[in-house]
Design a protein that fits this description.
Structural class: alpha/beta
Helix content: 25-40%
Radius of gyration: 20 Å
Distance between the termini: 59 Å
């Protein structure tokens, strides 16, 4: 039951409204909560916990000063639905094989962590579906609470690849965030993720250095293309050039797989990747599956059209690429390299 127009004068409806959870519109379609035409449905159920965020990230629709719609995140809408019905349908969808993971996007509000812990426990009580949560953790004990409730992975977002961008576009505290990520990765190995957004003003070299630091600590990287959202502080900024995004996608994938020696990479004076330290033939072979250009993040997360418009530029493919799409993506990666050896 969608709760946008609930008559709160009715006590039963008011109770459901109090127990609402926001559901991405694509997820609502998979769960049968809404009629949605989808060529590439989500393989993860995306749920939002909390109201307008207490933080003020310049790129985020949920930021404290954002004038974007309250039910928006990136370019996706998240209508509220009854939580009990949503959790029950989620359990059924997992058993039927329509969904393979649940992911909670948790805003930073006074009660959101407790609410997230509650929702995780409710999902786990009804289903064995793997559960991720992207949450503003204060310390490792917060993570321990969510793991104890039933989460199997947690994401603590960096978003920005340099301390200067982090503190200008998010909040002071880059070093604290990095220290907490490292502590979590050591305490909960193989269960910690982070997010990085390409196109906030960093160079490709900045991203590669960040990829290497995170990978050394076993931290999974979810890669996003900056998406301008009306009503946010960065609404007028352009998305990243596709060629640049393809180059950093390739670098992230090969670094994560242990197939790229970062010390052998070369960059232009502007920080653009000009060599991976591999021949063109080697690079094409390593990228031949197309996996580098698919959505990166937790297992089974495909985030369809989170950064893209249907029919527009496809930054993150939510499905396996066709042979032509792989060939095209690899050609884009190779086009700027200065070492096109056979």
């Amino acid at each position: 039951m969608a709760l946008d127009h609930v008559n709160t004068g009715d006590l039963a409806d008011a109770a459901r409204l109090a127990d609402a959870i926001k559901v991405s519109i694509g997820t609502a379609g998979v769960l049968g909560l809404a009629e949605v035409v989808q060529h590439d449905p989500p393989t993860t159920a995306y749920l939002m916990v909390g109201d307008r965020c207490g933080r003020d990230c310049a790129f985020c629709a949920q930021a404290r000063s954002s004038r974007a719609r309250a039910n928006a995140l990136s370019r996706v809408t998240w209508p509220p639905y009854d939580a009990a019905e949503t959790v029950a349908r989620l359990a059924d969808a997992y058993l039927a094989g329509r969904l393979r993971r649940a992911c909670l996007q948790v805003t930073a509000t006074p009660d959101s962590l407790a609410r997230a812990e509650e929702i995780v426990a409710r999902i786990r009580a009804m289903s064995k579906i793997p559960i991720s949560a992207s949450v503003a953790l204060r310390h490792a004990e917060d993570a321990a609470r969510l793991f104890a409730a039933g989460a199997d992975r947690l994401a603590l977002a960096l978003d920005a690849a340099t301390p200067e961008l982090f503190e200008r576009l998010k909040t002071p505290g880059w070093q604290r965030q990095c220290n907490l990520l490292a502590e979590l990765a050591e305490r909960f190995p193989g269960r910690i993720s982070t997010h990085l957004i390409v196109g906030l003003g960093e160079t490709e070299a900045d991203l590669v250095r960040c990829f290497a630091w995170l990978t050394e600590r076993g931290i999974c990287i979810g890669l996003f293309a900056f998406t301008p959202v009306p009503g946010t502080a960065l609404a007028d900024r352009l998305p990243p050039a596709l060629a640049s995004y393809r180059r950093v996608q390739a670098a992230r994938c090969l670094i994560a797989q242990g197939r790229l020696d970062v010390a052998q990479m070369r960059f232009s004076s502007e920080g653009q990747i000009v060599s991976y330290g591999l021949s063109s033939r080697q690079l094409a072979a390593l990228l031949g599956s197309g996996d580098a250009f698919r959505t990166a993040g937790c297992p089974d997360c495909n985030r369809p059209y989170y950064n893209e418009r249907p029919g527009g530029v496809m930054y993150n493919y939510p499905r396996p690429l066709t042979p032509h799409e792989v060939q095209e993506a690899v050609a884009i990666v190779q086009s700027a390299l200065t070492t096109p050896t056979p």
